[in-house]
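Thread: quick sanity check before group meeting

JM: Hey all, I'm pulling together slides for Thursday and realized we never actually wrote out the predicted structure for the chain we discussed last week. Dropping the sequence here so it's in one place. If anyone has concerns about the input, flag it before I start.
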Amino acid sequence: PASFVSLRADYVSNIGVSGIAGGGGFISLGAAVAVINDVTTVSAVLGGGVDADGAPTAGSVGLVADGFSDIDVDADADVEYDLSTAFVSAGPGLSLGAGIVVGKADVDVTAAVGENARIGTTGLGVGDLRVAADRIVDIGPRAVTLGGITFTPPMVAGVSAGLAAVNAGFGFVGVAGDVRAPIADGAEVRVSGDVDVRAASDAALMI
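JM (edit): ok, ran it. Output follows.
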């Protein structure tokens, strides 16, 4: 067989959010908030679908893929969030400020051979089968450029000038969801080459 099948699902999210609050006077109050809550399902399933949790479901009985040199089933998610908050106040009296940052990536990624799929079963031949699910998540502070100089402050920052200042910061970043690459129950696979099944998740989180 000389032809091939490539089934692919890609999700790319690159978001930057900044929250800035300021105050002045004898008493200044302020809060800066930056929130991202991403709930996403990315699925590539040969011979079926996925349920609400991203797990493969049954496809059509007798679904056949045969006569191909290679079959690739890939699902990929590449997520990058940059968040920052700042509270700036100046006044002769009391300054109260708060910064809140929440970044959560709830991303399910599934690449699968679904239930009842038949691969290489009719005698035409299939060379290699590759099933791969990958997720990369990078959540960190947002870079800032001032006066031509770019730097990366903490996610939560407060600057106050006055008689008394109280600043509080809260930051939460997290990753949820599953990364799967199953060959589901009931599937039949026959190949002359390699079967490569991989599920990988890589996360870099910094506040």
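AS: nice. The mean pLDDT is 81. The two ends are 51 Å apart (CA to CA).
JM: adding both to the slides.
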